[in-house]
Amino acid sequence: MSVCLVHLRLELPSKSSKPSHFNFSTDKYSTKRNEPVAPRFYDSKAEFLAAIEAARGKRPFRSYTIETYSPDKSQKAMEEVGLIPVSERPVLRSRTTSGSTVRSETGEARSDFDTNDEYCVQFYYGNPSVEMVKGVLHLYRDNERTSLKPTAVRSTLLCMLAVPAHLSTGDLLRFSAPFSTEIQKLKIIRDQTPNQYMVLFRFKNQESADRFYDHFNGVPFNSIEPGICHLAYVAKVDAVEDIDGGGMAVDGLTELPTCAFCLERMVN
Predict the structure, then answer these.
(1) Using only C-alpha atoms, what is the Rg of the chain?
(2) Which of 3, 114, 121, 162 has an alpha carbon within 20 to 30 A of 106's alpha carbon?
(3) How far apart, in whole angstroms, are the C-alpha atoms of residue 60 and residue 147?
């Protein structure tokens, strides 16, 4: 089996600040690959600006909220400086015993819960780093397919596409809790779309990303509400100003819509 890796490009207005720690690239997709079309390929600046507007079409710049969450390292650091009282730590813990699950979202002591248990997982999700940016988020599919064989190199970054808006941050972290110790960082990207958002999961290694993909891709978020987990390996994430061709077509890539209805076509 094989999959198509995806590229995320945030097209920014001219002279805009780029979000921090947003760029990512696998070794195969270096910064020299899939560069946007440059103005030098056009006879005049006016012609290039017209091409930018034509490429963007009717998609206006919109506001995006990027929330960055980190696992226990953030929690420990803030505990050391006294920013998070122990009684107020928003920690997610889960433990499975005989098919049942015990969870706590408040960090309160539980007589039926042992934090030293080998099956215990913890994830800090309070006080995230939140940034507001304006732009157009483009989702591209690589035209070359990548094998899912264990020996193939893919990516340590996974994108969870079209997450239903009814799934809160706490719900999302509960869903991914079995892998919380393997997650290095996650970013939740929200725009003005009322019914969905996007999540980037950065894992410590390829093996962890593969296990997460195999375990959750195509799985319902819960048994009550609609919504399927759609995952894709991410080859590259960058932010490029519109004047530098951030919204122009990229050689070797096919732009995709981000709606849930079109995700099946991407998989196929």
Answers:
(1) 20
(2) 162
(3) 36
Give the span between the Cα atoms of 12 and 239, in whole angstroms.
7
Give the separation between CA 127 and CA 130, rounded to whole angstroms.
9
Tokens 């304006």 belong to 134
Task: Determine the Cα–Cα distance for residues 259 and 265; give it in Å rounded to an integer.
Answer: 11
Tokens at 147, concatenated? 């094998």
Listed residue (139, 141, 247) closest to 193, CA to CA: 139
* Side chain identity at residue 8, one-letter code: L
Q: Is 212 exposed, middle or buried (0-12, 13-18, 19+ CB in 10 A)?
A: buried
Please state the length of the chain: 268
Tokens 């110790």 belong to residue: 181
Q: Report d(CA 201, CA 190) in Å as an integer.
A: 15
pTM: 0.75
Q: Which residue has the higher pLDDT, 18 or 159?
A: 159
What was the pLDDT predicted at 30? Answer: 67
Q: What are phi and psi of 5, to 5 degrees?
A: -70, 155
What is the CA 191 to chain-centroid distance, rounded?
13
**Tokens representing residue 197 in the block:** 């958002």
Q: Residues 6, 159: contact at Cβ < 8 Å? A: yes
- 172 — phi, psi (to 5°)? -65, -45
Q: Which pLDDT value is given to residue 106? A: 43
SS3 46: helix
Average pLDDT of the chain, as a whole number: 76
- Here the tokens at position 248 are 């122009």
